[in-house]
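Thread: "does anyone have the structure for this chain?"

Original post by V.I.:
We have the sequence but no experimental structure in hand. Need at least a predicted one for the grant figures.
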Amino acid sequence: MDVIRLLDQASLQIGAALGLDKREARIEARALGVHAWKVDAAWLISHDTDPLTGEMLTTYDTLLSRRLEGFPIAYLVGSREFYGRPFKVTSDVLIPRPDTELLVELALERIPLHRSVDVLDLGTGSGCIAITLALERPLAGVTAVDRSAVALEVAQLNAKTLNAPVDFLTSDWFAALADRQFDLVVSNPPYIPAADPHLTRGDVRFEPVAALAAGVDGLDDLRRLIHDSRSHLKRGGTLLLEHGYDQADAVLELLCQHGFEQNLTWRDLAGLNRVSGGCRPGAVAPSG
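Reply from O.Q.:
Generated one for you, tokens below.
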């Protein structure tokens, strides 16, 4: 068995088992090879006809078997790209997803390039949001919190690897922040209803449920964040929250109930309602 034949075979297996198209399956098969053999993508091309040793086959087959069982590719290879950068991920953190890049883009629109502002990322997980904001806006003071100490270890490692100046803090949402206030608060909190069948399908089966589910209607943490955030936002500050595709109306109503102004919802690339936000009274209106 040589490299190219193994990857071709693995691609077919992955596609059939997981319902991926040919391109996606091929990308995954190659990613497993890169990780299993500790090579780069260019090596797979330049050595495509090389015969594989028994050890190389065994290492690859072990990873492939776990993927065919549905174990997330990001956890198998230990990383996932987000906003053009590689982030280490483990089963202690959510896998970064393209949908969340909308939250980052909206946040960047509200962080000046040439002036320092205070930014808070709640429930940072892998740190992908906070680290991206810190790297894209070097003058911003970015703080990131998570209740999970093991998740913060992953985030801190990512920050060190990417040389991102982020202040990490163990906190159950705002609990450890005392009276600190911020110009911008962002979060991708748990928002899936606890009984939602999606929690038993796909990658989310293997992700930390505490970072996914939030009560009967999925709004428990969103309610808490909206309620508590006003006392941690400066006048003129903005709150941006990722949520489920069918939760925009509920989130907007909560924002209104707690005195936020200029409340808006933004759609992701799939056209689904994905992020809602508003301003503490006296703020400049969010751009649409």
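V.I.: this helps a lot. The chain is about 40% helix and 20% strand.
O.Q.: and The chain has a mean pLDDT of 94.
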